[in-house]
User: Fold these one by one.
Assistant:
Number 1:
Amino acid sequence: MSTESPLKELALHDITVRFGGLTALDNVSLRVAPGRIVGVIGPNGAGKTTLFNIICGFVQPTSGSLTLDGQPWRPRPHHLNRLGIARTLQGVGQFAGMTVLENVMVGARRRRAEAEAMAALERCGVARYAAAHPGALPYAIRKRIELARALVAKPQILMLDEPAGGLDADEIGWLGTLIKETGTTVLLVEHHMDLVMSVCDEILVLDFGKPIALGSPAEISENPKVTEAYLGTAA
Ligand SMILES: Nc1ncnc2c1ncn2[C@@H]1O[C@H](COP(=O)(O)OP(=O)(O)OP(=O)(O)O)[C@@H](O)[C@H]1O
């Protein structure tokens, strides 16, 4: 499977997740159309990571369902790569005992995918660190390596979990350009509002697990419910 294959439509239907007495997601529906960049935002604890964990099969919904290209779909973490779904993690979770190149090859679909891994590192501007060990590198470089690891398999759906965390303005500018140029479907969980507003076609806003708004960046930035959710957190 490659980026030339038709992109997949991912949809969540009335997903609810309860952890004991806590409702982390409350009846959330979302259709991620092929090729769109969809942001998921909300105050801390709103359920953003839980939503990603549902799509990756790390967490099972209490109720609700998912579909992939309209077919019922039960995600399993070890099938994601084969299905063309790649995810970056918050922070940088690279293997310390491997070189940068070896870390990126872990994300590839084929064995011995050295050329693809080098191409992904080049795309992310960090090919010169291929032989280094990630532990010794600055945080911003490691974030780029994490992106290369997700991009190496040429995913059809790229899930980015707080990719801008810990980056400066220049790095975030670079990241925004990369996201817009991937040509793939992107799901973006991010607190950095300028990045979200500049790259997303559509944004879902969660608050205490509830979907409170879904729309274009302009619609979201003018929605009083969204302002209230954020100001309520800050107060
Ligand atoms: N495995 C779990 N067991 C119990 N509660 C959990 C679990 N995972 C998440 N939660 C709770 O579910 C709620 C939503 O958490 P989640 O991490 O999805 O929020 P978030 O929007 O990603 O937050 P942040 O912006 O801080 O990363 C929180 O109250 C959290 O404490």
Number 2:
Amino acid sequence: MSTPLRRSTEPPPVRALHLGLGSFFRAHQAWYTHRADDDWGIAAFTGRRADLARTLEAQDGLYTLITRAADGDEFDVMRSVARAHAAADHDAWLGYWASPAVRVVTVTVTEAGYLRDGAGRLDTARPEVAAEIAALRADARAAVTSAPARLVAGLLARRRADAGPLTIVPCDNLPQNGAALRAVLGDAADAVDPSLTDWLDEQVSVATTMVDRITPEPTDVDRRAVRTATGVDDRCPVATEPFSEWVLAGGFPGGRPAWETAGAVLAPDVTPFEDRKLWLLNGAHSLLAYAGSLRGRTTVAEAVADPLCRSWVEQWWDTCAPHLDLPDDDVARYRAALLERFAHPRIAHSLAQIAADGSQKLPARIVPVLLRERADGRLPEAAVRVLAAWFLHLGGAGAPVKDVREPELRPLLDGALSDAAPRVLAALHPALGDDTDLVAAVSSCVVELGSQ
Ligand SMILES: NC(=O)c1ccc[n+]([C@@H]2O[C@H](COP(=O)([O-])OP(=O)(O)OC[C@H]3O[C@@H](n4cnc5c(N)ncnc54)[C@H](O)[C@@H]3O)[C@@H](O)[C@H]2O)c1
Ligand SMILES: O=P(O)(O)OC[C@@H](O)[C@@H](O)[C@H](O)[C@H](O)CO
């Protein structure tokens, strides 16, 4: 007999809002908030689907976090999610923004959710973006659905209510995610109501963060593990690795949870931590997702156990190391720890999940190092390999293709490799398509990898 998960005491008062209720938020920001030495409750909204919100709400926002070590699991019930809402619950969304009690808004909507164009601005050429801007201009309470539009709708509600300053905290794997979100929000605000821009500058701070905790999609095995170990029938547990990092920079004029008491680090600048994480961890993840899946590997652990894939990872890390503004010892320790994290025997982190939206991820994970290398006159084999493997992936080899830009990328693959390669590379960064040496190297690597 198993018991359902319900609260026996009141939830903490809602003082924070989250957009993008999913696995990572529950393993990371909600975990830090749960452990922080104060009493902040979060109202969390899904990005799109309603199911997780419904399931969590039926458990009063409670869920089990499984901290999965190589030699066993720990089970802890997280209490910081006071309310869980479906994306469509737009009136509730606006209501929280209008509440002076709410001081912080965290965001995890994936790289694709920022709706950026190639220059990092809001992609107003997309019909759905233009339609949502028009809807908000006509009615500030219109039920918009994209992340930028929902955030601007929230900002309009807050200004109407004169509810005071707050901080938005993006927690997606984007370089300088604060500036990235601020640019998109500024563009959306300007398009909807130019008078919002000054208010935004005065009342809203956007923090920049480096976030790290490998959290695969939950499975039925996780649910059974909770039931067996605790006797509780938790319908939405989430399993994560023991390692966790959160580095934040920025102002919190309205206050924030005491996340530092739970291990978060407040720093003047996240750049060195972010480069280290996005290039070494996420860059290697993308390499394995495309090149490893070409070799039939399906998880990170499987791929890194393959000596050839592992040598590719090491080669990529050697390429990145000179560009990191950190002591060599730190980088060496980080690399050693990463190999252990990747090889985790009880975490099945699917390469297919990581492969999704490469058009949004490679510009953050691979391209910055590649451009630095090219500026120094080098043509790094490791970066060439990732791009060639991604090219093959887009053509249908290895992990399945799921990319927000797929409709525009697929036609670029038509025709001879010598024509297609520059077009596909230019889709990641304009300078890459014009780099004839790089195009030639990627083309020959496509042939080499494709024939393996
Ligand atoms: N899972 C990890 O290991 C991990 C670690 C570090 C950072 N992150 C960041 O967190 C993000 C979410 O990861 P997750 O594991 O929680 O995924 P998830 O699929 O469990 O949850 C994603 C959430 O984002 C929403 N979303 C997805 N696409 C969206 C879009 N286009 N617009 C608006 N909302 C959208 C979904 O509705 C859902 O609420 C990642 O993309 C990454 O940027 C994840
Ligand atoms: O979550 P995504 O889709 O941005 O990327 C997949 C993984 O590379 C990523 O989730 C890592 O596991 C994570 O960034 C580790 O902290």
